[in-house]
Design a protein that fits this description.
Blueprint (H helix, E strand, L loop, with lengths): L2 H23 L15 H7 L12 H16 L11 H11 L1 H10 L5 H15 L27 H27 L3 H26 L10 E5 L10 H20 L7 E4 L10 E4 L18 H25 L3 E2 L2 E2 L4 E11 L3 E10 L5 E6 L17 H4 L17 E3 L2 E7 L6 H10 L5 E7 L7 H17 L3 E6 L4 E3 L5 E4 L6 E5 L9 H5 L2 H20 L7
Parallel strand pairs: 1-2, 2-6, 3-6, 10-11, 11-12
Antiparallel strand pairs: 1-15, 4-5, 6-7, 7-8, 9-10, 12-13, 13-14
Family: Belongs to the CN hydrolase family. Apolipoprotein N-acyltransferase subfamily.
Pathway: Protein modification; lipoprotein biosynthesis (N-acyl transfer)
Keywords: Acyltransferase, Cell membrane, Lipoprotein, Membrane, Transferase, Transmembrane, Transmembrane helix
């Protein structure tokens, strides 16, 4: 490599690194949100660099890609705590996500305009929100959730986080053009600056209008319970029961110290199981071959009776727990609260299926409703195609054999209709949006998660940022109960009303306000952004087909 090529490589590396560092500084723990408006400027300038088109042998694509692999590894490194082998999926995810900033630069070189730049970026975000099951973490729009006042992020009720990302790219483009104007091209700067000013002013005015919307106070009291219990990939029965008992003790103490009745308590993902899943028998039931052992095979009626007995035991445990949650108040007992808890669910039908679920236990101890998690965690809860490979499917470790539920549910608690979701479902923005589209009567979202896997790292805060944007996108308060994570009450404007520190046990008494707005995002979904996603894919396909050798590294 010549000296010229070395200098070019160094400049490209420094330029790309500047963008990655600026993005990182907008992340949790640092929260320098104003940097979001300049973080893409180096990438936009890089796309205009004539050295990229020169056939000088500079491996610029490899440089850009490698820098962003490092950015995503650093931002999501907390995922490695979940399991000793998690570094493999972590590396794969970073390698996958880094493709999008590179493609942004590549395609922007062919379509250098503020609107096309914004469409390319959000088009890439739309693709990654759907491809390979989808993930919304680290979208550009999340960088503004800590912006004082929250005016600019209120446009998320139009097209979710995509809308905020679009605005940020428009402003970055204008600033990049300001640099170009200094170098002698003022006309383009005037155009892009005017456009950015219109978008900023319009978004700010719209946000201010949306923030003034009156929310109806609610008198329904929900107690969100959070702890910081260390979890293990394969926990034994004793540890599950120990965690259950600790949550029970904390909840009982909290209710004993309350001078008002509580309508429902919420426990995080899996914490209500206590080694005792909720088991269901369908009308069409096939007795599993392993039931009863090798010498004795249960009949269908015997197996149904066994399931009914496990349900009775489960209900007795719930009744006993609710009785302990019913202290006397000046001689009169408050009514027992409902329980919304994360719990394993097993359903026996033609085949046996197991779910990560949410149960709604009514004040009488009966299981009133069940929600089975719809969106499973790849590699954590399932491995693609694993059940189709006979040699491997018998060696799947516990926890990787989960099934996905088939739709949303709504739990009625007091004056609230709660839409439950689990784990990373708030980190895949479309899940809550689609569920609310199907069940528009829901007026609050209750999310249960176990983020202790991530050991208090930035991953937990990224998850909370996603939940804040979901709250705005749906205009529904988000009530989050977490183990080792974001136990928080978020209002329908995306503001965190109250939060429990990550490394502490605590609880939040919520009385979420009722917001009757049905957003454009919920009504029509992300199809306007999907147009940008389709264009992104089309431009990429045309580039590959038309000139597959251009700018090869």
């Amino acid at each position: 490599m010549s000296m010229t090529e070395k200098r070019s490589s160094r400049v490209i590396g420094i330029t790309t690194l500047a963008s990655a560092v600026l993005l990182y500084l907008t992340g949790p723990g640092i929260n320098l949100w104003p940097l979001a408006f300049v973080a893409l400027v180096p990438l936009i300038q890089l796309a205009r660099d004539e050295r990229l088109s020169a056939r000088s042998g500079v491996k610029w694509k490899r440089i850009v890609y490698s820098v962003f692999v490092g950015y995503y590894l650093a931002s999501l490194q907390g995922l490695r705590h979940a399991h000793p082998l998690m570094f493999v999926p972590l590396t794969a995810m970073a390698a996958y996500l880094a493709i999008y900033p590179l493609l942004f630069v590549v395609l922007l070189r062919r379509h250098d305009h503020p609107l096309t730049a914004a469409a390319l970026w959000v088009g890439g975000e739309w693709v990654r929100n759907y491809f390979a099951t989808g993930i919304s973490v680290l979208m550009l729009g999340h960088t503004l959730v800590d912006m004082p006042g929250g005016w600019l992020i209120q446009i998320a009720d139009l097209q979710g986080t995509y809308a905020v990302s679009f605005l940020i790219v428009i402003v970055n483009y204008a600033i990049a053009d300001a640099v170009s104007a200094y170098q002698g091209t003022p006309a383009r700067w005037i155009r892009s600056t005017s456009m950015a000013a219109v978008f900023l002013i319009t978004s700010g005015l719209y946000g201010n209008h949306r923030l003034s919307y009156p929310v109806t106070p609610s008198d329904t009291r929900i107690l969100l319970v959070g702890r910081d219990e260390q979890t293990e990939y394969q926990q034994d029965l004793g540890r599950e029961q120990e965690i259950f008992n600790r949550y029970a003790s904390q909840t009982i103490d909290a209710i004993a110290n309350s001078d008002v009745p509580i309508d429902a308590v919420v426990w995080p993902e899996s914490m209500f199981s206590g080694g005792q899943p909720w088991i269901i028998a369908d009308a069409e039931l096939t007795v599993p071959e392993e039931a009863g052992g090798e010498k004795f095979r249960f009949t269908e009626s015997q197996f149904r009776e066994i399931i009914a007995d496990t349900q009775r035991q489960f209900v007795r445990r719930s009744i006993n727990l609710q009785a302990a949650m019913t202290p006397l108040n000046e001689g009169d007992a408050f009514p027992p609260p409902s329980i919304i808890g994360g719990c394993g669910v097993v359903r026996y039908g033609r085949t046996a299926k197991q779910y990560s679920g949410v149960l709604h236990v009514d004040p009488s101890g009966q299981v009133e409703g069940v929600y089975a998690k719809n969106h499973l965690v790849m590699f954590g809860e399932y491995i693609p195609l694993i059940r189709s490979i006979p040699i491997l499917r018998d060696h799947v470790p516990p926890g990787l054999g989960l099934d996905a539920g088939d739709g949303p549910n709504v739990f009625n608690v007091g004056g609230l209709k709660l839409l439950p979701n689990l784990c990373i479902e708030t980190a895949v923005e479309r899940i809550a949006v689609n569920h609310l589209h199907e069940r528009p009567e829901a007026n609050a979202i209750v999310t249960l998660t176990n983020d202790a896997w991530f050991d208090h790292t930035a991953v937990v805060s990224h998850h909370l940022r996603c939940a804040q944007m979901v709250a705005i996108g749906t205009r529904r308060p988000v009530l989050s109960a977490a183990n080792g994570g974001p136990t928080a009450w978020i209002d329908s404007f995306g503001k965190i009303v109250e939060k429990v520190p990550l490394d502490e046990a605590g609880q939040i008494m919520t009385t979420p306000g009722l917001d009757d707005r049905r957003t454009l995002y919920v009504r029509v979904g992300s199809w306007p952004t999907a147009i940008a996603g389709g264009w992104f894919i089309a431009m990429l396909a045309m580039m590959i087909r038309r000139d597959p050798t251009r700018d090869q590294p």
